[in-house]
Amino acid sequence: MQRHILNSLFQAALVLVGVLVLVFFMVRATGDPATLMLAREASPEQVAAFREKMGFNRPLPVQFVDFVRRAVVGDFGDSLHYRQPAIELILERMPYSVYLATVALIMAVLIAVPLGLLGGSLPGSPVDWIGRLIGLAGQTVPPFWLALLMILFFAVELRWFPTSGSERWNSVIMPAFVLSLGTMGRLVRLTRSAVLEIMGEDYIRTARSKGLQPRVIFFKHALRNAAIPLISVTTVQFGYMLGGAVIVETVFAWPGLGTLTAESIGRRDFPLVQGVAVFTSVVVVALTLLADVFYAVVDPRIRYD
Amino acid sequence: MPATSRLWRIVSALTVFALAAAACAPAATPVVQTQVVKETEIVKETQIVQQEVVVTATPEPFKPVGTLRIALTTDIAAIEFPQAPERQAANASWTLYDSLIAPLPDGTFEPALAESWEVSPDGKAYTFHLRQGVTFHNGEPFNADAVVYSWQVYSQPDVRYATYFTIAQSVEKVDDHTVTITTEQPNALLLPYIANGWAIIPPKYHAEVGLQKFAEAPVGTGPFMFKEWIKGDHLTVVANPNYWRKGYPKVAEVVFKFLTDSATRVAAVQAGDVDISPRLTTEDAQSLLGEPGVQIIRYPTSRIYYLAFNNVSTGQGTPLEDVKVRQALAYAIDMDGIIQAVFSGYATRAVGYVAPGELGFDNADPVPYDPDKAKQLLAEAGYPDGFEMGYACPESGYPKINDVCLAIEQQLNAVGIRTKLDLQEANAYWDREAKKELPPLFVDSWSATLPEAYARLQGALAKDETYANWYDAKLDKMISDLQITVDTNARAALYGEIQKYMRENPPFVYLYIPEAFEAVSTRVQNYRPRSAENYYLWDVSVSDGQ
Question: What is the pTM assigned to this prediction?
Answer without folding.
Answer: 0.80
